[in-house]
Write a structure and sequence with these properties.
The chain is mostly helical. The protein is built from 6 helices and no strands.
């Protein structure tokens, strides 16, 4: 794959950032609507599902665009949204398990970005 091919792929997948913004905006509109309907602050389950979708889309977009820090923190936020979704279901995992998953995501995302040296045609680190 040439540098031009990679750039073309990045441009083709660029709208994923817009889709993540749609997911994040929709979750707040849904929460606002539910809260107004109930007359108190409510966070429905769909809020956390849309959060996970938005985090994953923005993480993928950030990976394509080689934005390490955005990718890193979106994966962390996805883990926390998953934890909140579990808390709503009443099947909360232990806090230790969440910290292990956060650490694993940190290591995974860092190694993934470091590995681009072997996959990109020019072999440069572009992620920091």
């Amino acid at each position: 794959m040439t540098a031009e091919d990679i750039e073309a792929l990045r441009q083709l997948l660029y709208p994923l950032g817009f889709l993540s913004a749609v997911a994040f905006s929709t979750r707040f509109l849904i929460q606002w609507w539910h809260s107004e309907k109930e007359g108190r602050t409510v966070v429905p389950k769909i809020f956390w599902i849309l959060s996970i979708v938005g985090n994953c889309l923005l993480a993928f977009h950030s990976f394509i665009q080689l934005h390490f820090f955005v990718y890193f923190f979106q994966l962390q936020q996805a883990v926390l949204a998953w934890r909140n979704l579990d808390l709503m279901k009443g099947c909360a995992k232990s806090l230790r398990r969440v910290f292990i998953l956060l650490a694993a995501m940190a290591v995974f995302s860092t190694l993934l970005f470091m590995s681009q040296k072997w996959f990109l045609p020019n072999g440069e680190f572009l992620w920091i």
